[in-house]
Amino acid sequence: MFEFAFGVDDLATTRLTYSPLQEAVFSLRARRRPAAYPHYRRWTASWEAAYRELDAELLDALVTPRVWVPDFLTPRPAGRRPSFESELAVLAATDPAVVAKDFAAAYRGDGAPLPPALAARLEDPAGLLAHCVEQVRGYWERCLLPRWWPRARAVLEADLAHRGRMFAEHGAEGLFAGLSPQLSWNSGVLRLDDPDSRVRALGGRYTPVAGRGLILLPTLCGRGAHTVIDPDEPPVISYPARGTALLGEHPAPQPPDALAELIGPARTRLLLLLEHPATTTALAHRLAVTPGAVSRHLTALTAAGLLTRTRTGRSVLYARSPLGTALASGRL
What we know:
Blueprint: E1 2-5, E2 15-16, H1 20-26, H2 29-32, H3 41-46, H4 48-52, H5 56-61, H6 84-92, H7 96-110, H8 116-119, H9 125-144, H10 148-179, E3 183-186, E4 189-192, H11 197-200, E5 205-208, E6 215-219, E7 226-227, E8 236-240, H12 257-263, H13 265-273, H14 280-287, H15 291-303, E9 307-312, E10 315-320, H16 322-328
Parallel strand pairs: 1-5, 2-6, 6-8
Antiparallel strand pairs: 1-4, 3-4, 7-8, 9-10
């Protein structure tokens, strides 16, 4: 059990964002336990050749057998929408002593021995850190950035938009309760219960937020809410993002004949795909067409009252309106 105590002003400094670096590192969990992350199977298969050109042994070792991750690999995001490069720069500036400490803590908490790829390199933690940075960058550029990240970012943006609405409509208790069944809010204390016995052994911890600001991070590769291993680190909680199943490479749905006759096949497919909010780029990727072609149809559907638009940072998320949902479900 972990408890985070909120003072009078701490809710005002609680924020939601996502971390490209965290998602890159956490995606390595899908290699450790593919059965637990079925929405990653086609992705990992598609980039296997590129992955093998990197130091696969080291990258595999960044995640323990029970998918624990050393804290230093996922630094606390400094901005509202941090870039991968800015987060990688923070990672590269890590104190080498922290690298050794965090690897030891993660594998000790997991109950697994350090793999040879790490044990030999820990004698030179500065060199190990530099190699980790180099390999994570290569993994991002060769495997994740070209096709996976546009889809992943759209899912994360949609989650943030939903959580913002939950907080506005239901307050802190409604927001926290909706993040994960493991989280509960009572009288200014946010409690995180973890079913993993090894994680519970680290618990019993009472952490005052104390003006440091709690950060809530949706992740596409998490099976429950979790926090950092080191209790001295500023408070961060990761939770499973909504809509992770959208990462699966499923073909675009075929439009029902009657609906396609009414608004056309292309616009019908878009309406069906927008069961969860998405950006123009993500929709274009799923339909294998240009963003310009998708944009024209989205504009028409929005003008007809079938979609809504929400700007989040530099992105625009489209979602079905109540009318669009009724039309897509055949209730009209």
